[in-house]
Every structure is written in C-alpha cells, then in structure tokens.
Write a structure and sequence with these properties.
heterodimer, A: 154 residues, alpha+beta, DNA polymerase, domain 1, 2 domains, 6 helices, B: 716 residues, Aldehyde Oxidoreductase, domain 4, 3 domains, 7-stranded mixed beta sheet, 5-stranded mixed beta sheet, 17 helices, 24% strand, globular, binds FE2/S2 (inorganic) cluster
Chain lengths: 154, 716
C-alpha cells in the first residue's frame, strides 16, 4: 500500500512501490489524461507536476513520491481556465492531441517559474516534450500568449 | 480494395456527387443515455435523418464522422461540410465516430478507410448533399405545419423560418421530416454563400485535447477489463517455438498467459504488471525466416532487381533512344531507407469477446479491415463485431494496418473478459510496417542546344498495396502508390519514361505519410537541380522555364520564391534550395534555408506555398503543412530503420529521432486560393522537405546527397 496526494486528494493504492507513477495514475486511479509514449523519459507525454515541478511519471516510482503533491492535467484547472489551456484553445494548438497533456504540464510549470519566458527558455523547458504531429510552432506562440493572459490575471 | 477502385484514387475527377441518398434508412431511435437538458423526461428521442445525422427532439444534432481523427482535422472539417448545408453552426454539432457501414465507404479508396489524404475530397460533395437533403426535409416538414411552401422557408442556425417570420427548431420537426421522401436533387451553396466553409474555425476537438478528457485507444476503460502486454518475436517474421512461463505466471497480478498468432500475451490486472511478467517470459523463437536479412542484403537485392525491366507507369516519346542520341547525358543513382511511423500513441486495441459477438475499441484508420481481422481472430462473422473508433494518437498510415488487433481479440477470448492490449514503444518501433526502401536510377539528356529532351526514372522497390490489399495489384500492373511524384513529373520534356520494378525486400512495408511521394520527390527534385547545374542554370529559373503553362505549379513556385526573398542573396552563411510537387491534388513549392554548424545542417526556415483548391478550414491546412514539414524534416535529417540479422536496430526515441522544440525551423505557409476542387493536405508537404534541404546543402557545399538520411553524410 502506498499513499500519494493527487490533485489535492490522498489516494491509497495497492501496488508494488516500484510501479511507475504513470501506471498508477492511469490504470489504478483512472486518470488517463497523462499519456504513455516511451517509458524512458524521452518524450514527455507522461509529464505531471510534483510539487509544481515537471517530472516524467513513467520513470518515477510511486514509492519515491512521499508527501510531494502530484498534479495531473485533470487537476490543472476544473474548467480549462488555466492560462495555458486558454492559450492552447485560442491558438488551436492540438492536432492528434496525444502529446498535449504533457506539453501543457511542461508549459504551465515553465510559466510558474518564469512568467515571461524567452524563446530560449521555451527551448530549454519544452525540448523534452516530443510532438510527432509537429505542433511546436503553435506551442511556442501559445506559451507567449499564456504569459500575457497570466500577466493580465495577476 | 480492387485495382479498379485503387485507380480511382489517382483520378483527378473523382468528385462525383456522393450516393448520400442510397443509404438512407429512416428510423427512430431512443438515445442510449439521456443528456442533461434533454426533454422533460430526461430522455431525448434521436431521429436518424440519414447515415450521418441524428437530430434529437431536444434540438441536439449529432454528426456521425466516418473518418478517423488522427490530428489531420476531419472531426472539424467534415462537420463543417455537413453543417454548412444543414444550416447549423458547426460548434453546435456533437460528433461521434461512425460504426462500420456501407454508407461510410470512402469512394476514393473503396473501403471504410482514412488515408491517402482523401477525406475531404471524398466528403466534399457527399456530406454537403447529405446536409442539404436533411435541411430540405426539415423545411418541408415545417412548411406542412405552416401550410406554406417549403421553398418559401429558410433556415438559420438550427431553425426553420417561415415567410412570415415564424420559427420552428429542427428538433420539433425532425420526426416528421424523417418520414418524408429524400429529395434527390438538392441545390448546394456556391462559394460566395458559404457561411463556415473557408473559415479558420477552432477545431471542435481542441477543448477535449487540452484537459485530458479526449479518449484515445490507450484510454479505453470497460467494466472488468484486464490489461495485456505482448511478447513479439525479436526478429522479423519470427515464430514462437517454446514458452517457459514458470517465472512470469507467479508474478503479482498475472491472470493468464496466452500464446497468440502474433506472440505471447500476458494478461494481468494492470498493464505494468503484464509488462513486467512479459519480460520474465523465457521464449525460444524460430528466427530462420529473416536470419540473413540486413541493410546490405536489402540494398543488394534492390540493386540487382533494378537491372531488370520495369513496368511502365508513364511513357511519352522514346526516352531511351533520346538518351542514346543526346549531346549530353546526366545519370545518377538514389537510395532511400526504411522508416518507422512512430505514432506517439503506440499500437493498442481493446477487445471484448463474448460467445455471440465482439466489441472492439480501437484507434484505427481502417474500420472495415479492423472488423474483419477481429472476426477472424474471434471465430465470428464480421457482422458480429462492432468497431468503436477512438481518437488516434497519430496515424500517418500506420493504423491502416490491423496487425495489432488479433492478439487483443485472442487474449479477450481466452480470459472471457475485456482486454486492453498495449504495445511498448520498443514493440512499436521494432514491429512496424515500414516505409519501403528504394533504389532508383535517373537520367536526363540535353540536345546540342542545351534543351532537356529526355528524362527517365527507373524505380525499384516493394509494393505496399500488394501487401496490404492482397490481389489488388495484378501481376504486371503498377501500384499507383509506388510511382507518385514520378508519373506526374510536371516538366515539359518531350521524351519521358517512368517505370517501376516491384521487388519485395523480406519485411512488411506500409503506407507512410505521403507514401511514395516522399521517395520519388526526393529523387525527381534533387535531380532537377543536378540537371540545372549541367545546363548552367539557376535551379528555380530552370524549373520555371520547364513548367510551361502549368499555372498551378507556376503560381505556387512564384509565391514561395517571393516570400522567401529567393531572388536576393541569402544572409551570409545561409543557403537555399527549392522543390516543387503535386500530390493528392495539391500543388506545392517549398524553399528551405539552411546553415551549417560544425558540419551539421541546421534548417533555419522553410517557406511553403500551396494551392489545395477550395479550402474547408485554412487554419487546419496551415497546421497540416507545418505538421507534414516537421514529419519530413525528422526523416530527412535522421530517419532510418536498420536491420541486422533480421532484427530492427532502433527501439525508442533516442535512436529513432523526432524533431524537438529547439530544432524547429521557422515555417511559413502561404495558401494561394483557387476554386478548383479540394486537394488533400494531410500529407504532401512531407515529401518536398528532403529535396529542398538537399538542394540547399548542395548550394552550401557543392555536395550532392543521393541518399537519406542527411546524418549519414559527413559534410564538414
Ligand atoms: S512516456 Fe514518459 S517520457 Fe515518454
Ligand atoms: S499533437 Fe499529436 S503528438 Fe502532439
């Protein structure tokens, strides 16, 4: 038994402690917004926040999390109102959409850390997130847009 | 898919009015689940207006989308088509994926299939007619209530309006409308009257794709469902010999170990448990089938086959004798590698097999083939298999194949419960149906005056269509998906010969975004620069002169040149290359601008001008161009699958590289409008990237790259 805090709720799950967080989220807790793409921290599809920092849940054993708070795409906002989600809709970023939960989690962590990211900041923060559909140009524009929206809100 | 149907794919004049009326079964059904805000009873009655539309008594409108949404935007574009004529804002329409059905066959490919950039081309007339028919029936039903003429009524966003301003919502007359005869000659709007077509509407699936709620194949969850991982042969074409599951079966969560036709499936309570147990299986494989297969043997086989005669795909004049008598001849050999699709969502399928039927939940591009494959694996009739299409986490042609479906069905049948079988990334990379390799020879001949008088392209490679659709390519016939961007060579040359030697290479090949365009455009457009060099002409000017009166080519070329400032020298250290192509009815030109950093190519900018005829959603068109260009860029720079002793060497994204954020060039897309019928847009831009870049590399280094990927070549 392992207890983790996911999107503000404590969840006790009956899994081996070396089980990657990704599969606990998806198959045990039922939060399928977080995706599997590579299992080796190469694609970023599985990105979630651990105490606000982006991590690859596919290589994060559930037993290593302790009291850190896990936030998934489902917990980012209840109604797509996070500035990153708003900007993603405004600029119509997703294509197949499979990578987008991970992209949004990486982008929202970036904006929390750097409210006005430069293109170099975006390269550094986002280059671990693959998009096979090649939505990068819109992702970059949407991060800049989200920075504006976030600035206007605060 | 018959050969005749296949040939339809390449026809330009395919846009006949669809037989929307033929499949109209007018029935009344009750919604399976009520929606909040429905009728007073909490239930809504859904009226099937035709194969694509259900109108609810609660005024809901549901569009059954018969094409798979894999990022290319059909979920939105097809909805816009039907909405335009139905007279409803597309955002008001709920979209569901259609079941398998005769009405949903893609006339351009002869099956219920999403591929070949055909979706909008197939639907352009068909769905607008379906929308117009439903609209007219609704108007007629309302006019009857008002005792007026239907022709005097008009519609506005889901309402019929009488000549005196009375209004009825669609839901109020849907039932009466469904009982009316289907009008056979409806009038469609002209472009000037389009309210939504041609507008960059936000995609209808975007909201669900920014909050994690969109259901992909991997996200399917059914009551009592178990999870499976599959041990597949590590060598191509391998077979299970013996299985020792003593260690695996005692691991936590493991329910059953099932030997299937495609490997050994471990069924467990979670996928992670299944995967761990799979890795604990000890399996002896028979790898004899591919033991001698490697990159060298594949290329040698292609070269040898290339010495044989080809099947003629295009012949004008007599290229061979023109080459013999030419004052000057340029010859070259080109070679292209195997490629993987690498959809970000690995192959996955959920099957629920019962004694009397099977439900299949699957991200597929090919519903009919999926149904047939599942039926065969379950021992059922196709009609007993219901296919539920999910969102696809990328397709690119990979999911036209249904090889990942039977094992899920077999596992579900064995355990008597729903099973979701998911491949690992490594499974996916090593068990793809690969973009075929090619070995091609090409020659051009000039007369004494320096005029290009002969062009001959001799292609050698396997037939994808013959593998995917056995019997569809008769012996001695050309696979139309092997000679794209070759048979339609646009340049004005009196003697042209394109022929093709089919040669199987010992592994499964599959349709890969833009199919043979990506092979043949690289050869044809790289070689155009070789010919320009021989002629002592600037490459773009050389092309322009040979495009004669081909206005659609000329226009996109001019726009790409102008927007890339091609006629002015590039900045110091920057070099440009150009490529031109028509594919799936869309005309394109690209200009790539590169620099060299430590002997490595850095692609700085790609300008793409295109004419895809009438456009449903220009925002999606631009997105597809950017997408295709980056797909082509990954392949051009690094893409190659290597085989050694029958084993695919690449496994995951560290050795099968995909472009990342920091490697993305500036991409500019310019759509030149035209009133031609729509062309395909999901694929063609992929194919121009490699030749445009390699032409720029030549400008930079005077080195001609005649094989891909670029990473193979040392440029420093
Ligand atoms: S699935 Fe975790 S980084 Fe790819
Ligand atoms: S939108 Fe398809 S992988 Fe990014």
């Amino acid at each position: 038994m392992v207890t983790i805090n996911v999107n503000g709720t404590d969840r006790t799950v009956d899994v081996e402690s070396d089980t990657p967080l990704l599969w606990v989220l998806r198959d045990v807790i039922g939060l399928t917004g977080t995706k599997y793409g590579c299992g080796m921290a190469l694609c970023g599809a599985c990105t979630v926040h651990l105490d606000g920092k982006p991590v690859r849940s596919c290589t994060t054993p559930v037993g290593s999390i302790g009291a850190a708070k896990v936030t998934t795409i489902e917990g980012l906002s209840p109604d797509r109102s996070h500035p990153v989600q708003k900007a993603w809709i405004e600029l119509d970023v997703p294509q197949c959409g499979y990578c987008q939960s991970g992209q949004i989690m990486s982008a929202s962590a970036l904006l929390a850390e750097k409210p006005q990211p430069t293109d170099a900041d975006i390269d550094a923060a986002m280059s671990g997130n693959l998009c096979r559909c090649g939505t990068y140009q819109r992702i970059r524009a949407a991060i800049h847009r989200a920075a504006q929206l976030q600035g206007a809100r605060s | 898919m018959s050969a005749a149907m296949l040939s339809a794919v390449t026809r330009r004049d395919v846009l006949k009015a669809g037989a929307a009326g033929a499949g109209l079964v007018l029935t009344i059904g009750l919604a399976g689940c009520s929606k909040p805000g429905g009728g007073a009873s909490g239930e809504r009655k859904l009226i099937t207006t035709n194969a694509w539309l259900r109108i609810g008594t609660d005024n809901s409108i549901t569009f059954l989308c018969a094409r798979s949404e894999m990022g290319q935007g059909v979920y939105t574009a097809l909805t816009m088509l039907i909405a335009e004529e139905l007279g409803v804002d597309p955002t008001r329409i709920e979209v569901e994926f259609a079941p398998v059905g005769a009405a949903y066959v893609n006339a351009l490919v002869g099956g219920q299939l999403t591929g070949g950039s055909t979706s909008v081309r197939d639907a352009w007339q068909k769905l607008r007619i379906a929308g117009a028919q439903a609209r007219e029936m609704l108007k007629t039903a309302a006019a009857k209530q008002w005792d007026t003429a239907a022709s005097a009524c008009r519609v506005e966003n889901g309402e019929i309006i009488s000549p005196y301003g009375k209004r009825l919502r669609y839901g109020a007359v849907a039932e009466a409308a469904a009982a009316l005869p289907v009008p056979t000659d409806v009038k469609l709007k002209g472009p000037d009257d389009f309210q939504w077509i041609g507008k960059a509407l936000t995609r209808l699936d975007t909201p669900a794709k920014v909050d994690g709620s969109a259901t992909f194949g991997i996200d399917v969850k059914l009551p009592g469902m178990l999870y499976a991982a599959l041990a597949q042969p590590p060598m191509l074409g391998g077979k299970v010999e013996t299985v020792d599951d003593s260690a695996a079966k005692s691991l936590p969560g493991v329910r059953r170990i099932v030997t299937t036709g495609s490997g050994v499936a471990v069924v467990a309570d979670t996928w992670w448990q299944a995967r761990k147990a799979r890795d604990a299986l000890k399996i002896e494989w028979d790898g004899a089938a591919s033991a001698g297969l490697n990159d060298g043997s594949i290329l040698r086989g292609l070269r040898k086959a290339s010495q044989g005669a080809g099947i003629v795909a295009r012949k004008e004049g007599d290229a061979d004798s023109a080459l013999r008598s030419a004052a000057r001849v340029v010859r070259a050999e080109y070679e292209l590698p195997l490629l993987a699709h690498a959809t970000l969502e690995p192959q996955v399928c959920t099957a629920d097999v019962r004694a009397d039927g099977c439900d299949l939940y699957v991200p597929t591009q090919s519903q009919g083939a999926a149904q047939a494959a599942a039926a065969a694996a379950a021992g059922l009739e196709p009609g007993q298999v219901a296919v539920h299409t999910t969102f696809l986490g990328g397709g690119f042609g990979r999911r036209i194949d249904v090889d990942f479906i039977p094992a899920a069905v077999e596992a579900s049948k064995a355990v008597g419960k729903p099973v979701k079988l998911l491949w690992t990334r490594e499974d996916d990379t090593t068990h793809d149906n690969y973009r075929p390799p090619a070995y091609d020879t090409v020659a051009g001949g000039f007369d004494r005056d320096g005029k290009l008088i002969a062009w001959k392209l001799h292609l050698t490679g396997p037939s994808i269509t013959a593998r995917v659709f056995p019997g569809a390519v008769p012996a001695g016939a050309v696979d139309p998906f092997a000679v794209e961007a070759a048979a339609n060579y646009p340049y004005d040359v009196p003697n042209v010969l394109v022929d093709w030697v089919p040669h199987e290479v010992g592994l499964n090949v599959g349709y890969w975004r833009s199919v043979s365009h990506a092979l043949n455009c690289f050869v044809a457009e790289s070689f155009m620069d070789e010919l320009a060099l021989a002629a002592g002409q600037e490459p773009a000017a050389f092309r322009r002169a040979l495009l004669g009166k081909q206005q659609r080519y000329l226009e996109v070329l001019e726009v790409a040149l102008r927007r890339s400032d091609y006629d002015n020298p590039a900045a110091p250290g920057r070099f440009r290359g150009v490529a031109v192509m028509e594919g799936y009815g869309t005309y394109m030109a690209q200009v790539a601008e590169i620099s060299l950093v430590d002997g490595k190519v850095k692609v700085e900018r790609i300008v793409c001008a295109l004419d895809c005829g009438q456009t449903v959603n220009p925002g999606i068109v631009t997105a597809q161009v950017e997408s295709s260009i980056l797909f082509g860029l990954s392949a051009a720079l690094w893409g190659e699958i290597n085989v050694q002793a029958g084993r695919v060497q690449q496994t995951n994204f560290h050795d099968y590289r995909i472009v990342r954020m920091n490697e993305v060039p500036k991409i500019e897309t310019y759509q030149v409008g035209s009133d031609n019928p729509p062309g395909g847009i999901g694929e063609p831009a992929t194919a121009l990237v490699a030749p445009a870049i390699c032409n720029a590399i030549f400008a930079a280094t005077k080195r001609r790259l005649r094989s891909l990927p670029i990473a193979r070549h040392k440029l420093a």
